[in-house]
Amino acid sequence: GLLLMPPRTFAMGNPEAHWNNCRYLFSGSTEIGGQEHLYIETQGAYCFPMENGSLMVYSSTQSPTAVQRAIAKVLGLSMHNVQVDVTRLGGAFGGKEDQATIWACLASLASHLLQKPVKLVLSRHDDLRMTGKRHPYSSDFKIGLSEELKILAYEVTYYQNGGAVNDLSPAISDRTLFHTTNAYFIPEVKATLYSCKTNLPPNTAFRGFGGPQGMFVIESAIAKAAKELSIPASIIQEKNLLKENDLFYYGQKARQVNIRKSWKAAFREFRVLQKQKEIKTFNQENKLIKKGVALMPVTFGISFTATMLNQARALVHVYTDGSVGVSTGVIEMGQGVNTKMVQVAAKMFGIDAVRIKIESTNTTRVANTSPTAASTGADLNGQALMVACKAIVQRLKKVAADINGKKTGKIELHDEQVFDEGKATGISWDKLITEAYSRRVNLTETGHYATPIIYFDKEKGQGHPFAYHVYGTAVITAKVDCLRGTYEMEEVQIIHDFGKSMNPVIDTGQAEGAVVQGIGYMTMEELAYDKSGKLLSNSLSTYKVPDIYSLPKVLVIKPLKAAGHKLAVLRSKAVGEPPLMYGLGAYFAIQNAVRAFNPGFDAFDAPITPEKVLMGLYGKIKNKGQKNS
After folding, report:
1. Is 172 exposed, middle or buried, given 0-12, 13-18 or 19+ CB atoms closer than 10 A?
2. What pLDDT is recorded for position 621?
3. Active-site residue 577, yes or no?
4. What's the N-to-C CA distance of the chain in angstroms?
5. In order of start, what are the domains of the chain with their CATH numbers?
6. Coiled-coil ranges per the record (predicted)?
7. What is the pLDDT of residues 344-366, one digit of tens each?
């Protein structure tokens, strides 16, 4: 078949040379489907001409600079003649990182040629049919374990469905390869990925960005081994969890590793051993209702895998009345990042949040923005904002020290007052700003931030691509009706590494939404195409997403007690993507429940819809390439 790019291989050691050293060998294949973003606001753009042949563009995009660059190229303009502005999005989930560009280009082309305002907004039906989805993958694996159940070697080949042309498939391929081993240390690993050209619209970014597809295969391999050895998968999982200073197979050393801490906390907090015993007893006593439990450890790297994107800028104005205007490159799309930017500025200046206004994201005010993606929006832009605020604060402290009659001193700003060595000086924020302006002190500043320490050599497949990792463990319980093939998610209980959360309400809400989106991906969100590539599941009557009736009966997310990371803004770790991976555990919880009824069920084919469950219960799903020795 045709490929969108040359195959990629990452490796550490040589699994082929170690198969003979393994006490147990298992191999098999997996299938994992795509997923529709289903943002509330569909794709769209509004453009109008301005003077001197320039263009103003309001675009529903996660990547204002990408839209600006594409429009300039299409129209033959310089980028400074195209101004892109984004106030907020009605959702995105990655679907507007790259795919918003074409609609903005179409509207801009018409506006430029007609010299009139043009608005282009897709209907829901057109949006579903014309946009790319999460990449489906077909994968083959081989895993080798020691007598003590240590994973000694692992080999995997991914076949990624990229669609008709390259969108973000190369970058998504990288993240799949980076997350091949999930939360486990495996000394011998080889992972190869083929990005296949097909007759579908180009598939694109989606929350997790290839990470879930990679993690699903290693979890399937462990589940396969556990089934054949007649033990819970959690035994193999626990024995192979990362430890401090272990090497990820792409060369980065694991630091500040919290995965074992979260695992132990989950076992303790959620009584996992007792739960496993109770479920075993329940299944023995009930013939037609079965339960299953699965644990899902998660280790997710935070940074763009394209190193150059790990940069951001901010622009801050302090006005003479003491109010503050903030512009950054981050896009608010419902994740609460603007609230976090307000918190950062308020903390840096020591003022009330009501004084701060977050401006729209605009390519004239803040140029060369990175996409709001890869869970980096708050970290990159928050750090840039801190740089800008810090510079202004330093100037204000000099003014305050001068007013207070001291050349030196420990001047601090908080509670809208100036403090010197912990004592109030009687100088208010308003007075300080007025005095600074009268002394012609600069009250405007730009901040630039570039994530330090990260690099990656794509030729060698080695480096330090991530600023830090987010860790956590989920315990998921499912109940299956063995007559109808239907199921319920009974409990989803999670210990999650938020770091030092700067806004627990926002972070917990983001985690809850991500988990449900992940469960939907694993259970019910099934895309269907005809042979010509036409989408058949092109409406909400044919594409099912989680609703209030399919939510877990119990959803608990407890923060792991952790110190955070210095490269996370205010030590508050990224929260956008990592919790989605917990949803993978829903597949294995349902699978375990089905196996309690039909021990021969051995398929790894997500989403595990009620149809597949029913066929699995009664042996209608044949093993596809499942082998073991």
Report:
1. buried
2. 53
3. yes
4. 31
5. 1-36+133-231 (3.30.365.10), 44-129 (3.30.365.10), 258-305+462-621 (3.30.365.10), 311-450 (3.30.365.10)
6. none
7. 999 999 999 999 999 999 999 99
